[in-house]
Amino acid sequence: MSFVILGQNVSDVIQGGQIVLTNLFETYAGSGQGGTATGVTIGITAASTPGRGSGTPVPTTSTGITQQGGSQSLYQYTWAVAHDQAPGDYLVTWTGTTSQTLAYVQTVTVAAVASGAPAPGQYATVLQYQSWSGDTLTPEALVAVKLQRASEDIDNALIGAVYAVNANGMPTDAMTIDAFMRACCAQCQFLLAENDDAGIKRQYSSTSMGGVTQSRAAAMTAMVLPPLAPRAAQILHVAGVLGSAALINW
């Protein structure tokens, strides 16, 4: 006898991106305890909802499935989503046998990439900045200038990173484009608030004007390189660019 266990939505993934799928095989359906599983397979098909997803991107297979941490209960599979994979919901079906044959069904949503490779030298547009930040009050001309400066700051932070580019040196992978766009928007927001493109203000530890006195943190004084916004650094770090190895195989 076989049992089908319905799971929740695993995550979203952008066209051309990758997602790591995991599943715990139980001793029996609903036990919550891992059991030794054999004959583990995975298959990914479009959900039956009209207009959502398309085809069978991963026919039922055992190839590519690995045991996580040496466990015979916990398995994982990395789905490399094709760049032209139709957006929509997909059903991930895991099957395997412990004390009984079990099938686990999860849902993954493939999201469309809003645009192709960014224009040369700039990782985000004014519209993308406004959508990401919610800031629609700053004049677009000023935002455009700051986005150019922000892109240059991001380029400086990406020295040593390795990723696929086109003839203009701009990223072509969907996940890379998205990460750089968000980081650029965060850096732009930082530059708008800092209002110090020339890097003059940060040379002074204390300033006074109109009865208001300000002192800068010592770490910010006379910096050789422009500072990277904390949120921009966070986005790039999560994407695998900062704080660890260079970005490989994107």
Explain the overall architecture:
This protein has 250 residues and is of the alpha+beta class. The protein has two domains: 2-111, Immunoglobulin-like (Sandwich); 126-238, no CATH class. Helices cover 22% and strands 28% of the residues. The protein has four helices and ten strands. The chain has a five-stranded mixed sheet with strand order 1-8-7-3-4, with no helix packed on it. A three-stranded antiparallel sheet has the order 2-6-5, with no helix packed on it. A two-stranded antiparallel sheet has the order 9-10. α2 (140-157) packs across α3 and α3 runs antiparallel to α4. The longest helix is centred in the C-terminal third of the chain and has 21 residues, at 174-194. The two termini are 43 Å apart. Mean pLDDT is 82; it is low at 243-250.
Quick tags:
alpha+beta; elongated; Immunoglobulin-like; 250 residues; 2 domains; three-stranded antiparallel β-sheet; five-stranded mixed β-sheet
Summarize this structure briefly.
The protein is α+β, with helices and mostly antiparallel strands.
Which helices and strands occur, and which strands form pairs?
Blueprint: E1 2-14, E2 18-24, E3 38-46, E4 58-61, E5 66-67, E6 74-80, E7 88-97, E8 101-111, H1 126-133, H2 140-157, H3 174-194, E9 206-209, E10 212-215, H4 230-238
Parallel strand pairs: 1-8
Antiparallel strand pairs: 2-6, 3-4, 3-7, 5-6, 7-8, 9-10
Helix pairs in contact: 1-3, 2-3, 3-4
The structural class is alpha+beta
Principal-axis shape: elongated
> What is the count of helical runs?
4
Q: Give unreliable regions as ranges.
A: 243-250
Q: Calculate the terminal CA-CA distance, rounded to whole Å.
A: 43 Å
Mean pLDDT: 82
| Major sheet description | 5 strands, mixed
Rg over alpha carbons: 24 Å
Structural domains: how many: 2
How many individual β-strands? 10
Helical residue percent band: 10-25%
Query: Strand share of the residues?
Result: 25-35%
Helix and strand element order: EEEEEEEEHHHEEH
Order of neighbouring strands in the sheet with most strands = 1-8-7-3-4
